[in-house]
Each structure stands twice: as structure tokens, then as C-alpha cells.
Amino acid sequence: MLKTRLKDLGQEETYPLFQDFEKMVLEKNKVMNLTAITDPEEFEIKHFLDSLSLMDLEEVRGAKRILDLGTGPGFPGIPLRIVSKADQVDLMDSLNKRVVFLNETIKDLGLENCKAIHGRAEEMANKEEYREKYDLVVSRAVANLATLAEYCLAFVEQGGYMVAMKGPGIEEEVAQGELAIEEMGGRLVNILSVDLGENLDHNLVLIEKLKKTPKGYPRAGGKPRKNPLGQ
């Protein structure tokens, strides 16, 4: 499945990198909680094919500076770095030991113009070197859309995009997130349904950044999670 997908992307030569990355994640998983998915076929579908589904979006394929926010063990950021033509792919996570692992992995895989960054979204988004500096921010983090919009859109430059990777049945969540999206300077563009097989239906929620995010956002103290805008 992965080989076929990479061939469709014209990236079949990168297959060994994906194999090496999987081995690194599963080896580290023995001493650090990175993923509950250890079956090879399930890993391929739920981590690799899910991450690569982003390449179905023209806005992702054309991105030059990408941030994977809340990257966890490196998804979708590292698969994107392997196949995309972006100038830079950054991975951000709040847990430092994951960031250390990711930077070691990036080095071992020989990936260029890629780094993992340690920090919390509400703090990093208010730093000049990160605020509104990316033309694409992606997130597979577990949070509702209103929360993700508040965290992600502050990193997106005007005219750029964010993509929230979500599971099935998101109509109500999208409706509840519209106020937060608008408040952060964005607008909902499209929801692309992705069939990963095995009865796995995912959705890519594409949001365009129309205007600057107001100062004071994202809110500190975990408020985007505790009290999502509009809810």
C-alpha cells in the first residue's frame, strides 16, 4: 500500500526512508510511549498513509514553509519532509524528550531543512520568529477544531493555510469551530474526505488565513482547550 502510494507521488525511491523511520519509532517505543500502533500494516495505514493523504491537497503540495504542530512521534511532519518540495519543515511539540528523539531521527535519516522545536503553542506563537511565519500549518493533535484553530492560525501567514486532520463525523465540530476560525483571521475553505481503507474515513479540514490573528491569541493558561471560543 505504501509503495503504491509513493509510486503515485513519484517518490518510490523514498520507501527505504519510511522503513527506517518506522524501525526508529518502534525501537524507541520500547522505552518511551510514542505510539500504541505497532502492527506493521496498521502502522503503514494509520501513520504513513494518513500523513501522506495531505498530499492530495494542492495547498500542501505547493507549501514552502511547513509547521507540524503537536507532532508527537513525527506525524505527519516527517513523512511530509520526506516527500514534499518545501524549503523548510518544522515539527513542534511540548514534550522535550519527543523533540530530542525527533531531532536524532531527522539526523539519522539524513533529512535536510527539517528540525523539531520544543515549546507550547500558546508561548511559541507569540515569538516573532514563529508568529505568522508559515504558509502551511498542519496538525493531527487530539483537540477539537476550535482549539486547533486558535493554536494553529497564529503561526500561519496571511494567504497561507492550516489543515486539521480529523476523524469521521465532524459536521458538528466544524460548525462549533467557525467562530474561532473567524476570530483567528481564517475561513473554512474545504473538507476533503479521505478513505484509508479498513473502514477508516478521515477528513482534512482546510482553512485559509485571510487576516492577521489579533494580539492576545492564542490565549495562555490552557484556555483554548478548557474554554474553546464559541463554546
Tell me what the structure shows.
With 231 residues, this protein is of the alpha/beta class. Helices cover 38% and strands 23% of the residues. It contains ten helices and seven strands. A seven-stranded mixed beta sheet has the order 3-2-1-4-5-7-6, sandwiched between helices. The chain is globular and about 45 Å long. The N and C termini lie far apart (40 Å). The mean pLDDT is 95.
Give the gist of this structure.
This protein is α/β, with parallel strands linked by helices and 231 residues long. The chain has helices at 2-8, 15-28, 40-52, 58-61, 77-83, 96-109, 121-124, 145-152, 171-183, 223-226; strands spanning 65-69, 88-93, 114-118, 134-139, 156-166, 186-195, 201-209.
Please give the oligomerization state of what you see: single chain
Q: Termini separation (Å)? A: 40 Å
Rg estimate, integer Å: 17 Å
Instruction: Kindly report the average pLDDT value.
Output: 95
- Biggest sheet: strands side by side, in what order? 3-2-1-4-5-7-6
Assign the structural class, choosing from mainly alpha, mainly beta, alpha/beta, alpha+beta, or little secondary structure: alpha/beta
> How much helix is in the residues?
25-40%
Which descriptors apply to this entry?
seven-stranded mixed beta sheet, alpha/beta, globular, 231 residues, single chain, 10 helices, 7 strands
List the helices and strands and how they pair.
Elements: H1 2-8, H2 15-28, H3 40-52, H4 58-61, E1 65-69, H5 77-83, E2 88-93, H6 96-109, E3 114-118, H7 121-124, E4 134-139, H8 145-152, E5 156-166, H9 171-183, E6 186-195, E7 201-209, H10 223-226
Parallel strand pairs: 1-2, 1-4, 2-3, 4-5
Antiparallel strand pairs: 5-7, 6-7
Helix pairs in contact: 8-9
